[in-house]
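Hi D.,

Good news: the full-assembly prediction came through. Inputs first.
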Amino acid sequence: MGLLRAGGAAVNQIATRILTHPRETLQATWKQWWSHRRLQKIALDLLTLVVLGSGAYFVLIPLIWMITRSFMRLEDAMSTRWIPNPFTLEAYYKIFVEDRFYLYIRNTAFVTIMGVIGATLSSALVAYGFAFFRFWGRTALFMILLSTIMLPGEVTMIPIYRIFYQLGWVNTFLPLFVPSFFAPAFFVFLLRQFFMSIPQDLIDAARIDGASSFRIWWQIVLPLSRPALLTVIVFSFVGHWNDLLNPLIYISDSDKYTLSLALLAYKNLYFNYVNAMMAATLVTILPCVLLYFLAQRAFTEGIITTGLRG
Amino acid sequence: MKAWISPRWRRIFGENLTGYAFITPWLIGFLGFTLWPMMYSFYLSLTKWDVFNPPQFIGLENYFRLLHDPTFWKALRNTIYFTSLAVPAQITVALFIALLLNRSIPGRGLLRTIYYLPTLIGGAPLGVLWLMLLHHRTGIINRFLAFFGIEGPAWLIDPVWVIPSVVLMTIWGVGGTIVIFLAALQGVPRELYEAAEIDGAGIWARFRYITLPIISPALFFNIVMAVIGSMKVFAPAYVLFTAQGGPQEAGLFYVLYLYRKAFISFEMGYASALAWVLFFLILTLTLLIFKSSELWVYYEREVRR
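Then the structure:
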């Protein structure tokens, strides 16, 4: 009770102060509150959230628009509404049953999986060579490798076309993934950086135990490099899956179209079928997004396990 | 064997052999898919070649022809105009978002993932999606503007708005740049900010004299990558404007023209010359940025007066 009374007295005092000197009191209170660091932080955080949230809104709106449209009937998809009503799989029926998108998914998956296997294994081998062996001209060769990262592909595109043309590989899947089997320079660079952090003692110990260089690579270096390998897998997957230029150059037979190529042809044929266009676009995008989410979890896992081990 | 080669030499020889064995895939690839194609492409740029008949040597004629080819100049102008708009726009937006994302706020991981999403979308679906979004009547961008009583432009039809449309699209996909900025921002020591705050430095001063110098290597990297990427735009532009380059060729990017010459009209020699000019342009721009970086990129351990 005594506390309450004391509190009441304080409130009375403040009230009379506000009434007698309104401006000064408010300014002082404001200053006092603002100088309160926590409050300042909360205000700034709120502002940050509002700005970032509206940014995220602009990033997501096109994607949401695409998703909802793909579940609409054609006449609804042309309208301004946001919620598919009635909800229908009409567009998916069209692209999968009438327009054979399953075929393009299969083609793209084949090219991508071959490309990812080739790129990951070959660049891991080469990076291992650069990281753990001393050989004549190693530094010079590595500098050359780094400089090829900057080389625009347009310069080598035409002669490479000639190579595949003479091999009779035009209009096959081979030109789309075979180059990946020769260690893409950027991945070699990335993996070598990671391999350099593996303690040399570990390699030496395995060697003393009689393990061959190849076995050390397979049983020690690769398992330790899971996060880096995953990064390479995600990058090469996204690169192959999304490639448009190479399929455009090499593939002419519509049975061998990849998704990107099919989507392009689809756009020219059915531009007004908004729902089917959006379903086709979504199907093309989805695998990369899913892989990214899966790998993201594994990345964190990799970090946690390495943290525990260290 | 053991008698005449000392074990030390045997070990060195062995290590060389294994080393080379491991890098063989790259060596073959480098010779077959980089070095030889580079030399051959330079040779081709001095020839007339239609794929079906053997190349015919014509000296520097392709390069002279380039100088008098109005379409080449048009494509070059478009690409440079695009680069000059897209690079500053991308870098500013990405840096701004990265700075905000670097604050410890709730939902940060989710927001970062959202901003990264568009970078996973390939050229073809990106082009198709934006073709729909930018449609002057039914696209949501003009509907959004109409909501505020603004009549949006005919993005992909009006030649004036063609390049800004593509800039808008690339800003949407700026997540990769954001991630690199974020990584750099995480390396800024917190003590510096605290010290500066005690000295009474405001937000802008802290950004200008602490954050910016420390993240300048990342800024440099992002600018170089953005310039190279902008000069080489192909897939989404191909979807939006085809190899013809859209209305009045306003969307004819350099690589679209190169592709048209190489694989539609099969003027492989001329296209090779175009490729070498592009290579030279990118090299020059990169070197210019490298040269200028001595003035504004700050590396640790470097003492500044």
